[in-house]
Structures are given as structure tokens and as C-alpha cells.
Amino acid sequence: xxxxxxxxxxxxxAVAAARAVDAGHDVVGVHLALNRNxxxxxxxxxxxxxxxxxMDARRAATRLGIPFYVWDFSERxxxxxxxxxxxxYAAGRTPNxxxxxxxxxxxxxxxxxxLALGFDAVATGHYADIVTVTGRDGAEHRELxxxxxxxxxxxxVLGVLTGEQLAHAMFPLGATPSKAEVRAEAAARxxxxxxxxxxxxxxxxxxxxxxxxxxxxxxxxxxxxxDRDGRRLGTHAGAAAFTVGQRKGLNIGFPTDDGQPRFxxxxxxxxxxxxxxxxxxxxxxxxAGSRYSWAGLDPVASGIADAxxxxxxxxxxxxxxxxxxxxxxxxVAGELVISLDAALLGVAPGQTAVxxxxxxxxxxxxxxxxxxxxxxxx
Length: 378
Fold this sequence. Notes:
Blueprint (H helix, E strand, L loop, with lengths): L1 E5 L4 H12 L3 E8 L17 H14 L3 E5 L1 H17 L6 H20 L4 E3 L4 E7 L5 E7 L16 H4 L2 E2 L8 H10 L21 H9 L4 E4 L5 E5 L26 E6 L4 E5 L5 E7 L1 E4 L17 E6 L7 E8 L2 E11 L6 E6 L2 E7 L2 E4 L6
Parallel strand pairs: 1-2, 1-4, 2-3, 4-7, 8-11
Antiparallel strand pairs: 5-6, 6-18, 8-9, 10-11, 12-16, 12-19, 13-18, 14-15, 14-17, 15-16, 17-18
């Protein structure tokens, strides 16, 4: 099988490529140049798109004896990930750029080009697993599952993948018991990235200053900070810099009547208001979104639900490293509606809710709205 190995320059993607070679596949390595003005060196463990990363990927490919190329996807990345990130914050939502990158770059733009060039699959260093099952139709289908090492599991950020994309995806690290084993294997193979730090944070904001990044693109106009009853408590220097659940940086200047801290409950870009309130008001009992997809067979075809509108039991995860919460989900009037068995704190529109049934990723939705467990006073 012809396999295109996406090589970021890190240890995970290097070992994933090596395992694809060991499996007897015809492997070609590719590094995606996503930044129009890449830095020469990484800043600690921040970022993953520097010139250094490209060179690390090339050295790994040379060590493995496979062809290696650098593909410039910077224009597509800016339009589909960076611009989307800015637009979402400008609309008062909190996006997950890693989800958009997997959805629109690694398993859309990259996979599309790979298939056009005659490759059968794209291999990445994600910690997730693919299981082949027989559906109700008697045909074989692929499901996305959690990795063996739940501490490193990355199935959440892959929840946006469709059945067609899963059919051409390979995750060679999915069954690996631990990251330590991957590093040991890299060292044994003579890969220089064996002890390279993991990348984290937003790759296109390597200094970690999200507020500064947004201020230069969305703008920062002073506006009111209000409570749930609409009473003005203070002034902010730009609503886009705030996200639901935030506590620091409000600078209201005086405590609540009960002396408890306030948290951001809502960002209203049209009125340029930031709504704050007590911690308990962050609790939500329902999530809903109209932009949803299924990672393989949908609930009906999987036998999980009798009909699209029939509620079914599942678990939902709203952050990459959050614990899943028991829930009931169904399709109602074009929305995927998720009712939580236990309230979640600080869930913002724009985040991604990924549904699980056991270890299987069933699908996901971008959260459009939430229902608070503590309604505002009227």
C-alpha cells in the first residue's frame, strides 16, 4: 500500500512513519509548511511549524530511507484555520484550531492531494485507533476509537473525521501502551527527535499571547462588563480577549455582595458586552449544535439508535484532556442536542463536543448554544 506519512518533525510522527515502513508499505514522508513566516527555532515546546521542525522531519526521513518532501499549505492553513480562529473569536465563540487543522488540512487538503497522487492512505502520529467492523448492511466499516494509552489519547481532536476520511487514515501509534515506549523506540532506531519536547499551545501563536494576537486582528474597543441582570460593573478593553469561564483579567475592582469571585459567562460581540457572574452560573446541562458529523456509521446505522430523533446514551467530552461525562443525545430540528447527566462548567459556544460510546468516537458537533443549570433572574 502507498502511504503518505505526515511528518511534523516530532517523535510521534517519526515513529509512526517508521512503523509504516516496517509494515511493508511504500512510504513517502511529507512535512507541511503551514506558516508563511516560520521561525528558525522553536520557543521551548511551543509551536510545530518552524524551520527546525522541517529539518528534524527531513533527518528522520533520511534515517528511515524514505523520500521526503515539503508541501506549502500556508495559504490554505491561513484561510481555513487562522482566519476561522479570528472570525470565531470576533463572533464571541471559543474555537479549537487543532480540530479545524485536522478537519480541513491534514484530513481534507492533505488527504485530497494524497489520493490525487495515487496514495492509499495518510499516516500520522496521533494516538488513536481504527477498528474495522461489520455494519447492519453486511459491509465492513471503520470506526475511530480511543488509543490504548488514555493519558495520551488524541481521539478527541480527530472527532471531526468522516467515514470516508477514516477509510484512508492510519494511526500506527494507537495500540502503543505509553509515550515512553515511543521515545525508547525512536532512540533505538537512531532518530534524533527521540527526546524532543512535545509541542503544545496554538502553533501559530508560538509566544502564547492569544490576547495580543487577537487584538491585532479583531481590534480592541472598550465596552461594558455587566452582570446577568445587566448592571454595569466595569469596562473591558476588547471583548474578543475574553472567553467563557475566565476569571483573571476582569479588573472590576470590587467584590460581589457575598465576596465570591466572578467569571465570564457570556461574550456578546454585537453589543460589545462581557457578562460575568458566580461560578455556579457556569454550569450547563445541555449543549446543542447544527454543525455535526459522524465518525463512520451514524447512530442508526450503528444500531445505537432506532431512529435519528431517538435519544441514545453516550458520553460527551468538550476538551482534549477533559473527562467524559454521561449524556443522552438526539437530533432535533437539525441540531445535535446533548443532555448532560451531570452539569459541566465553563462550556463556551465554538468549542467542540465529541460523543463517545465506550471507546468509540461516534461523532461531534461545534457547540452553538448551551443551557445553564442556573437560569438568570427575570
